[in-house]
């Protein structure tokens, strides 16, 4: 409906299992005739972003989820201090996306990854797709860093959990989907080393998300998403529905803003 006149970007945040909400968002947008021309993502958002950029429909994304045993991702292994590898995720991407190359995707894709060696954020849009997505999903303290070109990389959400910036200069209208809104936690959750570490990571994520939200023309934050943890992969249908319902309710406002931009252009 709008893509002939207005170029639309879709930025998908990280959030572990909460990332299933992104599929619901895309489904609601497409039902309204809103087809993003470009996508960016961090962590879980990079996985859904890669599937979308490869031309997957929401139904095919759900099938990918149903056929994947994502609980395998969180089983700790003995090597490297007990950190798990994300080889299963890489295997699944290899099975469904034919070519391991950003340039072979149907839509442009930007993936946020954190370079542990330099301490810098990198936004990748070229190179080996599987390893870069795997690196973007490598949550510190849970998964092993991923080595690419002799550099070690971890979760892009550490430095930029909602990478809207590369879309803001390349599209006319950016829709952001933030699955990690700030929440308060009780003191009992901060009594152990792991609880404190995760809280510190969350604070870093919230801090780096705020500047990116200002670059979005519309921000989707599914109500109730914080009721699900980043490892509740068995709740994918419920989480998908949250994203769908929130976006479905937002369609009139998104449409109004797109129509206004269309008139002004």
Helix and strand layout, with pairings?
Blueprint lengths: L7 E5 L7 H12 L6 E5 L1 H10 L4 H9 L12 H4 L4 H10 L12 E7 L5 E4 L4 H8 L9 E3 L2 E5 L9 H4 L4 E5 L15 H21 L4 E3 L15 H29 L1
Helix pairs in contact: 1-3, 1-9, 2-6, 5-6
Q: What does it look like?
A:
This protein has 265 residues and is an alpha/beta fold. It is built from nine helices and eight strands. Strands 1, 2, 3, 4, 5, 6, 7 and 8 form an eight-stranded mixed sheet that branches. α1 packs antiparallel against α3, α1 (20-31) packs across α9 (236-264) and α2 runs antiparallel to α6. The longest helix has 29 residues, at 236-264. The two termini are 15 Å apart. Residues 75-82 have low confidence and may be disordered.
**First and last CA, distance:** 15 Å
Q: Which structural class should the secondary elements be placed in?
A: alpha/beta
- Write down the overall geometry: globular
Helical content band: 40-55%
What percentage of the residues does DSSP assign to strands (E)?
5-15%
Helix tally equals: 9
| Count of individual beta strands | 8
Q: Radius of gyration, rounded?
A: 18 Å
Query: Which stretches of 5+ consecutive residues score pLDDT under 50?
Result: 75-82
Largest sheet: 8 strands, mixed
- The chain-level mean pLDDT equals 90
Could you give the order of the helices and strands?
A: EHEHHHHEEHEEHEHEH
List keywords for this structure.
265 residues; 40% helix
Task: Give a quick precis of the structure.
The chain is α/β, with parallel strands linked by helices. The protein has 9 helices and 8 strands.
